[in-house]
Amino acid sequence: MNFYKSLMTVSTVAFLGSVAPSFAQAQADQLKVAYQAARNQLGILGYCADNGHIDGSAAGVQKKLIALIPAPADGSGGDAAEAAGRKGTVSVMGIEQSIAAAQGGPPAAYCKKLAELVKQMGANLPQ
What we know:
The protein is mainly α. The protein has one domain (2-123). It contains 6 helices and 2 strands, in the order H-H-H-H-E-E-H-H. It has helices at 2-16, 24-50, 57-66, 76-86, 99-103, 107-123; strands at 89-92, 95-98. Helix 1 (2-16) packs across helix 2 (24-50).
């Protein structure tokens, strides 16, 4: 469960970006990590929906959240991160773990919690 909390914290922090000013390259690297984490989360939501743990509505919200992050010039990392998620692999900042290992139990609970959190974040988006 700690890995799950860490994943959500990393994803949220990465998504929100850096508050303090930083060098352009460091900021670009942070945005790349945020983009890849968000794409992995989209893949995980797809995995969860494909396996009947959730409906597909959270994936639609996740796509809106991803649209807020500037996509890197080379999108292959995002493509790979999303593909890993579709296979049930949580991949953040070079750490990969199956959903079952990250949750410490069956994926259904992880999927439901992740979908709830994504929908809560989406509820804060401007209409």
